């Protein structure tokens, strides 16, 4: 029986390494045929905004990591509706080219459906 794995992406895309490390862990797990689902919540929703230019602050873009997700079998990600609303964002503002973005109304219940949760 396959265990259900969730990557909870809660960090802003830049300012520390957690967002990048989280996406790299997801890609590594997917390469080992353990593709986790991703839930973006809190400041993690900012990772899904298009055309970010982190070069001005000396950071690498996360866009390549996000673009690689479908190549590893991850074609759908989830986003917390409450987190979007708190940041005055809508699902329409998020990048949608690489994968489907599915809104989640009750993130607590959603997380409860998984056997293991990686928190980044």
How would you describe this structure to a colleague?
By secondary structure, this protein is an alpha/beta fold. It has helices spanning 18-31, 63-68, 81-86, 107-111; strands at 5-9, 37-40, 76-80, 100-104, 116-119. It contains 4 helices and 5 strands. It starts with a strand and ends with a strand. The mean pLDDT is 88.
List keywords for this structure.
alpha/beta, globular, 120 residues, five-stranded parallel β-sheet
Radius of gyration: 14 Å
- Rounded mean pLDDT is 88
* Overall helicity: 25-40%
Report how far the terminal alpha carbons are from each other. 26 Å
Q: Which regions are unreliable across 5 or more consecutive residues at pLDDT < 50?
A: none
Approximate strand percentage: 15-25%
Structural class: alpha/beta
Label the overall shape: globular
Summarize the SSE layout with pairings.
Elements (H helix, E strand, L loop, with lengths): L4 E5 L8 H14 L5 E4 L22 H6 L7 E5 H6 L13 E5 L2 H5 L4 E4 L1
Parallel strand pairs: 1-2, 1-5, 2-3, 3-4
